Automatic annotation (TrEMBL):
It is found in: Membrane. Residues 73-130 form the Plant PDR ABC transporter associated domain. It is a multi-pass membrane protein. This is Pleiotropic drug resistance protein 4. One of its GO terms (molecular function) is ABC-type transporter activity. One of its GO terms (cellular component) is membrane. InterPro entries: ABC2_TM (IPR013525), PDR_assoc (IPR013581). Keywords: Membrane, Transmembrane, Transmembrane helix. The chain crosses the membrane at residues 12-40, 100-126.
């Protein structure tokens, strides 16, 4: 899931600096609102959209549901009708229903489809930046071709022709 997310960010950013900045911002938002640093009941009402849109939240809830509804956590706490796994989930502010395993799987699969679609559309319709791509030193070029080189301009930019690719 993370590979398609960051691949989409790279295509949308179109330059290394912008893509890295967007990737760090997305990583920060997903980490903070994923449910481990801030649980659902600790997130402010105006930031609740970050919680529900974070892919980490769905993955984490699926992992927690898979673990804490397993046989090793199914012992009933004395004096309560809750299992040990449900009590731990409630104490951490996580969702305490077993259905969150399948919700998390479905949400992650949906994120993969959405980000692959976004990646494909962005590759098809966004124009690439016309930046120079190769720096060739005339010294190394002339020595490999046995030519004389100019001392005033030892390195020059060689660009790909604009009609290619």
């Amino acid at each position: 899931m993370s590979s398609v997310l960051y691949r989409s960010i790279a295509v949308l950013g179109r330059t290394l600096v912008i893509a890295n900045t967007l990737a760090v911002l997305v990583l920060l938002v997903c980490s903070v609102f994923g449910g481990f640093i801030l649980s659902y009941d600790k997130v402010s009402k105006w930031w609740i959209w970050g919680f529900w849109t974070s892919p980490i939240m769905y993955a984490q809830n699926a992992i927690f549901a898979n673990e804490f509804f397993g046989n090793s956590w199914s012992h009933v706490i004395p004096g309560s009708n809750q299992t040990l796994g449900v009590a731990i989930l409630k104490s951490r502010g996580m969702f305490s229903e077993a259905k969150w395993y399948w919700i998390g799987i479905a949400a992650l699969f949906g994120y993969v489809l959405v980000f692959n679609f976004l990646f494909t559309i962005a590759l098809a319709y966004l124009k690439r930046e016309n930046l120079p791509h190769v720096l060739v030193c005339q010294n190394s070029l002339s020595s490999s071709l046995n030519l004389k080189h100019s001392l005033n301009n030892p390195c020059s930019l060689w660009e790909r022709p604009s009609d290619s690719i």
